[in-house]
Amino acid sequence: MINVGIYNQHKLILQCLENYLLQSTEIKPVFTAFDKESLFEKMVGRIVNILVLNFMEITHNDIDMIISLKMKFPKTSILVVSDSQRDDIVAKTIKSGAKGFLSIDSDASELLQAIYTIRSGHDYYSESITHILLKRYIGSVGASANEKDEYDDDSQSLSSRQIEILKLWGDGLSNQEIADKLFISVRTVETHKNHIMQKLNLKSSVDLIKYAIRNSIIKL
Description:
By secondary structure, this protein is α/β, with parallel strands linked by helices. The protein has helices spanning 11-21, 36-43, 60-72, 87-95, 108-119, 127-143, 160-170, 175-182, 186-200, 205-214; strands at 2-8, 27-33, 50-54, 77-82, 98-103, 124-125. It has 10 helices and 6 strands; from the N terminus they run βαβαβαβαβαβααααα.
């Protein structure tokens, strides 16, 4: 069972999130909070595997709150759901300790996927957030042409099929589009991507794209 806490300043949205998570037999909402004080109070003495923090626009105070939560409750993984799209804010939110970031336009089912992924030890970012982080990373690569020299090319450990899938995914194709193009199932695509990340000891989709760029599997 995955114990989940939920924070949102709007009670209606808070209740909707709780009711949605209650539909899963593997997730247990252990509390809801609509203000900072009650959030910290309810975290004390509870086992909370994942804390879902829902913000509209992320402020510096919100980032400070994430840092404080990670310091006081280091065993709890934080998943942020927000409408913020500024790359600097997204980057600061992740650096402050968030293990996942969903944009507000994500499907409800993606919330469950993010919770399961984070609980398994991986980071999770929705597609639009991944693109923001990738754009920021590409900019840093362009500013430092020697960065590639810091890494070894271990792409030889990947099979030709895995490299093919990685190239297509880096080109922006969804799992379904990759499956259709290669005449395989979506589940097979997901399995290949999981195996790639395990082989390379990567934690998130952003790390996977960074690896592909560094090793010239994806061309800038």
